[in-house]
Amino acid sequence: MAITLDELRPPDPDEERGGAQGTITAIVKVKKAGYVPNGVTVRARIDDEMFTASLPASLVAQVRADPLVASLDESERLERID
Q: pTM for the complete prediction?
């Protein structure tokens, strides 16, 4: 069984997120208290300027470019240790 170079390519980031139509979770920090970018659903508030959120993977770049968003860090699923 031979391995091709196509099998060795790094995965597409959109595929890892569940495709462009998938939903991701993230921690969002904004510059204005209470601000929530369009398309973002607040899951839980950490404080007035930071919250966990769900959003479509296709909106990540748009939210990061929002001038009122200080940062957006995507959550990573941790492996379960038995």
A: 0.70
Q: Is 27 exposed, middle or buried (0-12, 13-18, 19+ CB in 10 A)?
A: middle
- Helical (H) or strand (E) element with 29: strand 23-30
Residues 6+ apart with CB under 8 A from 11: none
Structure tokens at 60: 């990540």
Structure confidence by residue, pLDDT tens digits, 45-67? 999 999 999 999 999 999 999 99
List of domains in the chain: 19-74 (3.30.70)
| C-alpha closest to that of 28 among 45, 4, 7 | 45
